[in-house]
Amino acid sequence: ALTSKLQAVLRGLRGKGRLSEADVSSACREIRLALLEADVNFKVVREFVNRIREQAVGKEVMESLSPGQQVVKIVRDELVELLGGAAAGLELEGATPVVLVVGLQGGGKTTTVGKLARLLKRDGKRPLVVATDLQRAAAVEQLRQVAGQAGVPVFEGSADDPVAIVQAAVSHAASEGLSPVIVDTAGRTHVDEELMGELVVMKQKTAPAEVLLVLDAMTGQDAVNVAREFDRAVGITGVVLTKLDGDARGGAALSVRAVTGKPIKLVGMGEKLDALEVFHPDRMASRILG
Amino acid sequence: LTGPGEATDELFEELEEVLIASDVSARVAAAIVERLRAAAREGRVRTAEGVRETLRNQLAEMLSRHKAPLAASPPAPPLLYLVVGVNGTGKTTTIAKLGARFQREGRKVLLAAGDTFRAAAIEQLQVWAQRLGAEFVAHQSGGDPAAVVFDSIGAARARGCDVVIADTAGRLHTKRNLMEELGKIVRVAQRELGRPADETLLVVDATTGQNALAQARQFHEAVGLTGVVVTKLDGTAKGGTVITIAEEVGLPIKLIGVGEGMEDLEDFDPAAFAAALVP
Ligand SMILES: Nc1nc2c(ncn2[C@@H]2O[C@H](COP(=O)(O)OP(=O)(O)OP(=O)(O)O)[C@@H](O)[C@H]2O)c(=O)[nH]1
Ligand SMILES: Nc1nc2c(ncn2[C@@H]2O[C@H](COP(=O)(O)OP(=O)(O)OP(=O)(O)O)[C@@H](O)[C@H]2O)c(=O)[nH]1
Ligand SMILES: [Mg+2]
Ligand SMILES: [Mg+2]
User: Fold this and answer.
1) Residues B88-133: pLDDT tens digits?
2) Helix ranges (DSSP H) in chain A
3) Which one of A239, A282, B90, B229 has the fewest beta carbons within 10 angstroms of its own beta carbon?
């Protein structure tokens, strides 16, 4: 793990003076490798390591911690701060708040919509989930089954336009006293102009309270591009990091945060509908550091 | 003194970043670039374009080393393809694309709904089977996936199908019971077929980072893979993890997915892939 690599690199420094530039440079090499291995984007790594360098050089070597442990603490504290201090909740104010769930193909949106609906129902709300993926084979059927498992109603419009379906769903929710309206959307790549354009229109016409980007925790260097483009196009309000029950280090979390400044609100920890948890920056920092 | 067309230090750093940005591991990228620096030091390559060309050739060579064609002529019908991988990578869609390809070759295709777990997984494959006009075998949702694959082989023989393509549920390689379930599917298929499946393909998402290597290693160890399919290369992710997979696990990369339609499947071309990675 990083601590032992840093111990080796900074051996023989305990209780002696200050961390020199040379000491910190060799430590920074190990930190860079650890973060790249964890899938943090290489540009984010570069900026992060420079920040660590500034904090570590000239630091007095303590008696109580080994220099390796000391540097790891600097790194860990910095990671926790960047990943976002306090837990950010969902903003569901207003009469019939709309939550748009967006992201790349296969990231876990439909499953997350079900998990979110189940969670909100337990919180005493009466969510309505909306099926707007008219493209993927049996996508509506999948949401229908997921909604059934979550015990919430599902709205399936008759229009062939996703935006029209959401508008109809919102009126239906308003008249039935259902809230919030959680919209499952078709997976799309951020470079598909037509589909990204559709999302822009959906946002304009439905004024959502939340636009959640669902991102697979195993996403690599491309996470910055995905996050930047979705944020630029529709303005995301938060991120749901899925499949965190695997062993991907999840560096995409840091990349997304660095590039958009938006909070990671929830994490998916399994395929079942009860596997949705609040995001813990300290646990994520430990995971990224390996 | 170096001119603009020369192999400078900046060039080697830039190329290392290009590789890392494409999800080639930092370790493998450093090793590859070190070989390029050595070639430049020894005068074997002198210009910036020469270095880029050498890099492309090196990558293409690494990816061709374990090259193997898709199994096509079984000793006895049906040809059996098993498709495996972690959640959401594109297995079911890839199966539809493979089915379409076999049909274009005039073969009779049977799709087996081996994902008996996920909501609407059977329905999803059934829609594809209907679109293709292919044969389809499924049991109840929640049923035993090995039994589905077992039945699909018998059905293929009875119906005169040339090829069976079996879908399986997405599963994280860290879930021991799910990997054991997959092992059982593979063993049951082998016993009924009378030989190992002709292809056991791991579907990897091009947007996946270093975890793809763990996926390849552990699925290979659990069930013995014959090849890798990289999907979603129509996005901006470069899929560089396949270089690490080829290098460290020795698996052939056989196919790429470049979209959501049934035509969006291509043979893996090492030279084209290398050229896309290092323009
Ligand atoms: N292990 C695990 N699997 C998950 C998690 N979230 C979703 N999945 C699985 O990931 C796969 C894809 O999930 P979907 O909900 O269909 O993904 P999607 O984003 O709606 O996919 P598209 O609509 O095709 O873009 C399914 O097999 C899910 O069961 C998670 O937190 N952990
Ligand atoms: N853009 C793009 N999307 C793809 C490609 N292959 C699959 N997809 C999409 O990725 C999503 C997931 O595909 P599936 O075939 O359901 O993936 P899967 O591996 O079977 O998923 P699980 O069974 O839930 O594990 C769908 O929206 C597909 O249309 C590809 O090559 N390019
Ligand atoms: Mg979906
Ligand atoms: Mg599937």
Assistant:
1) 999 999 999 999 999 999 999 999 999 999 999 999 999 999 999 9
2) 2-9, 21-37, 42-56, 67-84, 109-122, 139-150, 162-176, 193-206, 223-234, 252-260, 281-289
3) A282
Query: At A22, is the pLDDT very low, low, confident or very high (cuts 50, 70, 90)?
Result: confident
- What is the spatial distance between Cα A210 and Cα A101, in angstroms, rounded to a whole number? 8
Instruction: State residue B4's pLDDT score.
Output: 59
Answer whether B22 sits within 8 Å of A246, measured CB to CB. Answer: no
Distance from CA of B239 to the nearest CA of A (A): 9
**pLDDT for the residue A58:** 81
pLDDT band of residue B1 (cuts 50, 70, 90) is very low
B161 and B109 Cβ atoms separated by less than 8 Å: yes
- DSSP letter for A100, please: E
A108 ligand 2 Cβ < 6 A: no
Cis before residue B69, ω within 30 degrees of 0? no
Q: Which residues contact B77 (CB under 8 A, 6 or more apart)?
A: B156, B157, B161, B162, B163
